[in-house]
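Tip: read the tokens left to right.
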């Protein structure tokens, strides 16, 4: 079972596995392929996780872990 707060860790993991940067599609694919069973057992999060990874990205930007959209190419999420 996953919780909304777990998504920050999964976003970072997905970016690390993609050499530090990826599109949202690649991030979502990585999470789905590797955590499908956990997501399916996560209640309402199962229906909102793709939206919630965007929230997770914003939190990671606030904590200085991901570059802001001004510093990255359009549509690409990058680790600092």
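Filled-in amino acids:
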């Amino acid at each position: 079972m996953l919780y909304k707060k777990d998504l920050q860790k999964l976003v970072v993991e997905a970016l690390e596995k993609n050499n530090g940067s990826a599109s949202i599609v690649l991030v979502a694919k990585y999470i789905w392929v590797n955590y499908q069973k956990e997501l399916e057992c996560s209640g309402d999060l199962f229906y909102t996780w793709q939206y919630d990874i965007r929230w997770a990205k914003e939190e990671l930007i606030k904590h200085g872990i991901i570059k802001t959209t001004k510093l990255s190419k359009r549509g690409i999420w990058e680790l600092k």
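DSSP finds three helices and two strands in the chain. The beta strands are 21-23, 76-78.
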